[in-house]
Amino acid sequence: MSTDHLSAAFAALADPTRRAILARLALGETNVNELAEPFDMSLPAVSKHLKVLEKAGLISRGRAAQSRPARIEPDGIKAVEDWLEQYRRMWSARLDRLEEYLREIQAKGDPEGTL
Predict the structure, then answer these.
(1) How many distinct structural domains can be found in the chain?
(2) Is the confidence at residue 1, as pLDDT, over 60?
(3) 66 DSSP 8-state letter
Protein backbone atom coordinates (compact mmCIF):
# COMPACT_ATOMS: atom_id res chain seq x y z
CA MET A 1 0.00 0.00 0.00
CA SER A 2 1.49 3.34 -0.98
CA THR A 3 1.83 6.26 1.40
CA ASP A 4 -1.23 7.93 -0.13
CA HIS A 5 -3.30 4.80 0.43
CA LEU A 6 -1.95 4.51 3.95
CA SER A 7 -2.94 8.13 4.59
CA ALA A 8 -6.41 7.39 3.24
CA ALA A 9 -6.65 4.32 5.47
CA PHE A 10 -5.69 6.25 8.60
CA ALA A 11 -8.07 9.07 7.68
CA ALA A 12 -10.85 6.51 7.27
CA LEU A 13 -9.97 4.89 10.60
CA ALA A 14 -10.03 8.26 12.37
CA ASP A 15 -13.83 8.22 12.37
CA PRO A 16 -15.48 6.17 15.15
CA THR A 17 -18.46 5.25 12.96
CA ARG A 18 -16.17 3.78 10.31
CA ARG A 19 -14.25 1.86 12.97
CA ALA A 20 -17.57 0.48 14.23
CA ILE A 21 -18.52 -0.50 10.69
CA LEU A 22 -15.20 -2.33 10.30
CA ALA A 23 -15.77 -4.09 13.63
CA ARG A 24 -19.14 -5.29 12.35
CA LEU A 25 -17.64 -6.40 9.05
CA ALA A 26 -15.02 -8.39 10.94
CA LEU A 27 -17.91 -10.71 11.82
CA GLY A 28 -18.68 -11.25 8.15
CA GLU A 29 -20.05 -9.75 4.96
CA THR A 30 -23.25 -7.75 5.26
CA ASN A 31 -25.35 -5.12 3.48
CA VAL A 32 -25.94 -1.42 4.13
CA ASN A 33 -29.28 -1.96 5.87
CA GLU A 34 -27.73 -4.27 8.46
CA LEU A 35 -24.74 -1.98 8.91
CA ALA A 36 -27.02 1.02 9.47
CA GLU A 37 -29.11 -0.60 12.23
CA PRO A 38 -27.01 0.43 15.27
CA PHE A 39 -26.48 3.99 14.02
CA ASP A 40 -28.75 7.00 14.20
CA MET A 41 -28.14 7.99 10.58
CA SER A 42 -29.65 7.60 7.16
CA LEU A 43 -28.74 4.88 4.69
CA PRO A 44 -27.08 7.46 2.39
CA ALA A 45 -24.89 8.57 5.33
CA VAL A 46 -23.82 4.97 5.99
CA SER A 47 -23.17 4.56 2.26
CA LYS A 48 -20.86 7.58 2.37
CA HIS A 49 -18.88 5.98 5.19
CA LEU A 50 -18.65 2.79 3.14
CA LYS A 51 -17.35 4.73 0.15
CA VAL A 52 -14.58 6.25 2.30
CA LEU A 53 -13.63 2.80 3.60
CA GLU A 54 -13.73 1.38 0.08
CA LYS A 55 -11.61 4.20 -1.37
CA ALA A 56 -9.07 3.60 1.43
CA GLY A 57 -8.88 -0.07 0.41
CA LEU A 58 -10.20 -1.32 3.75
CA ILE A 59 -13.41 -2.86 2.37
CA SER A 60 -14.84 -3.97 -0.93
CA ARG A 61 -18.40 -4.08 -2.13
CA GLY A 62 -19.84 -6.88 -4.21
CA ARG A 63 -23.00 -7.39 -6.17
CA ALA A 64 -25.62 -9.90 -5.06
CA ALA A 65 -28.95 -9.41 -6.82
CA GLN A 66 -30.04 -5.88 -5.85
CA SER A 67 -27.76 -5.74 -2.84
CA ARG A 68 -24.12 -4.61 -2.58
CA PRO A 69 -22.71 -6.52 0.39
CA ALA A 70 -19.62 -5.08 2.02
CA ARG A 71 -16.67 -7.10 3.25
CA ILE A 72 -13.30 -6.36 4.81
CA GLU A 73 -10.32 -6.30 2.48
CA PRO A 74 -7.57 -8.17 4.34
CA ASP A 75 -4.78 -6.62 2.22
CA GLY A 76 -5.86 -3.09 3.17
CA ILE A 77 -6.02 -3.97 6.86
CA LYS A 78 -2.66 -5.79 6.62
CA ALA A 79 -0.94 -2.71 5.19
CA VAL A 80 -2.06 -0.67 8.21
CA GLU A 81 -1.05 -3.47 10.55
CA ASP A 82 2.40 -3.77 8.93
CA TRP A 83 3.01 -0.03 9.24
CA LEU A 84 1.98 -0.05 12.91
CA GLU A 85 4.03 -3.18 13.62
CA GLN A 86 7.30 -1.57 12.59
CA TYR A 87 6.73 1.19 15.14
CA ARG A 88 5.58 -1.27 17.80
CA ARG A 89 8.83 -3.20 17.39
CA MET A 90 10.89 0.01 17.51
CA TRP A 91 9.20 1.28 20.68
CA SER A 92 9.33 -2.12 22.32
CA ALA A 93 13.10 -2.28 21.70
CA ARG A 94 13.57 1.25 23.04
CA LEU A 95 11.56 0.51 26.16
CA ASP A 96 13.54 -2.70 26.69
CA ARG A 97 16.79 -0.69 26.49
CA LEU A 98 15.39 1.90 28.91
CA GLU A 99 14.39 -0.83 31.34
CA GLU A 100 17.91 -2.32 31.16
CA TYR A 101 19.46 1.11 31.68
CA LEU A 102 17.28 1.76 34.72
CA ARG A 103 18.27 -1.61 36.19
CA GLU A 104 21.94 -0.73 35.69
CA ILE A 105 21.45 2.64 37.40
CA GLN A 106 19.63 1.01 40.31
CA ALA A 107 22.35 -1.59 40.70
CA LYS A 108 25.05 1.11 40.77
CA GLY A 109 23.13 3.24 43.27
CA ASP A 110 22.16 0.34 45.51
CA PRO A 111 24.84 -2.36 45.62
CA GLU A 112 22.48 -4.79 47.35
CA GLY A 113 19.80 -4.30 44.64
CA THR A 114 17.04 -3.43 47.08
CA LEU A 115 15.84 -0.26 45.34
Answers:
(1) 1
(2) no
(3) T
